[in-house]
Write the structure tokens for this entry.
Amino acid sequence: MLLDFFLSQNIITEAQYNAVLGELDTKYDHDPIRALVAHGVSEDSLTQAKAAFYKMPYRKIKAGDITYDTLKYIEEDAARHYKFLPLSFADSVLSVGVTEPENIESMNALQFISSKVGVPFKLFLVSLSDFLAGIENYKALTSEVAHSVSELNTELEMANQELSEEKKGGKKNEESAVPDEKIVEDAPIIKIMATIIDHAVGGSASDIHIENTGSEVRVRYRVDGILKTALTLPLAAFDGVVARVKILSKLRLDEKRRPQDGSFATMIEGRKVEFRVSTFPAYYGEKVVMRILDSERGVKSLEDLDLSQEHLTLLKTALAKPYGMILISGPTGSGKSTTLYSMLSAVDREGENVVSLEDPVEYQIPGVTQSQVMPEIGYTFAAGLRSILRQDPNIIMVGEIRDKETAALAIQAALTGHLVFSTIHTNNSVGIVPRLIDMGVDPYLIAPTLILAMAQRLVRRVHPDARTEVPIDESTKAFITQQFSTLPEAYKNKVPLMEKMFKITPTTDLPSGTKGRVAVFEMFAIDVDIQEMILKNPVEPELAKLVRSKGMLTLREDALIKSLAGIVPMQEVYGL
């Protein structure tokens, strides 16, 4: 009993215990804390002791702690009814303050809300007084944003009225033709955008999506590859938010029928964070997507790429060659650019002339001449490659091979004594060769130039504090056996012993059990046998059989090995 615990911990005296004991059945709704507070005991000390009783962290709510976007995770009616309150959102986890952890109905409701919004939660015990004060933030912060939107609308109406009067009076000038810019720069909508950006960076999001759904403005963050709704805004805020982003990115405010691309940078917590912006015309208005390029994440070394020892050796061997082409395949958002930057940082940038063509330049690497392509003025990857070859390069990085011309020029550069690495869109590493042929590159040019073909994906990473080692079950054993059944016996030593596996054990700090992402790879080096097949029969099934006979592990198998090591959840393996 909680009251007995208070007495045993010397939080209350025996006299207070006896005084309250007789009142619980008739007063205070069986709540010993309310009863003890009425007898002069400190509510904070009682709540901290209650937190220890339930083995939960205690949290004191201070004025200004709770922000508008945090409150949007839980509706006000639900928060008041079940007596829990969203406190903060950080590291992709929602912190929730509860007053009644023993209330099963309340905990079930919270589990349902968490699954609905797709955000895990961490529980804190808060006092009833703090909860009641915190719940008022719904009214206060909603009013603040509503006031910002209302203020914005007022300014827009005034500007439109001035513009109409000028038109009636026959006045024409450049400023009156686009009044939105000045209005939005001065409007409180700036606060809303600043909040969206700050929380996205603080929550380790890779992208921000802002879209008009017809009934509201939805703001979503992509965290660890998954899009999650961060907050919703009233429709009245939509035009102001879009205009604010356009102004920051130096895009045309009056162009709403065509997609636009731009970028801007800002300082957040003392570091430079860049945003790559794209607008796209949609039915209810332009959708805005902002890719976050955080300099704090920096460029990883090859050793930090989560490569197996065998894969690391293959990559280092290819990078040490004086000429040839290394290609990485994978969908958008699979970490290809990260791998390319790691390769750039690993080559000799002092004794070699290293040049890159990028779209855009995401991170600056000392010793590399980095150039951003601009297709709108005719400076494409192909045009850039032609110019690079007149710059006496040794190593060339091309952001992406998108067309026949770029592919042909990259091949030509590799043939003429340059080391070239780039990315290409295929489903796997074996598909790189047929893709180049589809682009119009002759097999006799691919065979002598391609030296390493890679593919990669990003999967969620298990946090070391949220895993438990368990004996491997029979169904998992059968799955592993079937997965590696086509691997030649000579290479079966790559498969780990099937004795143990790891189970995710969510904690209050990590309800999902995962944090961050890890790359999984497949790759093969081009040898004489593969060159011969490229020349004679370069079809994907036959190439796949050949590289498999040489011991290549697939993306799924690399993920499976990492899962058995406790790095990747098993459900991520099944998804590959």
Q: What stands out?
A: DSSP finds 24 helices and 18 strands in the chain. The first strand starts at residue 84 and ends at 90. The chain has three domains: 2-137, 179-294, 302-574. The domain at 2-137 is CATH 3.30.300.160 (GMP Synthetase; Chain A, domain 3).
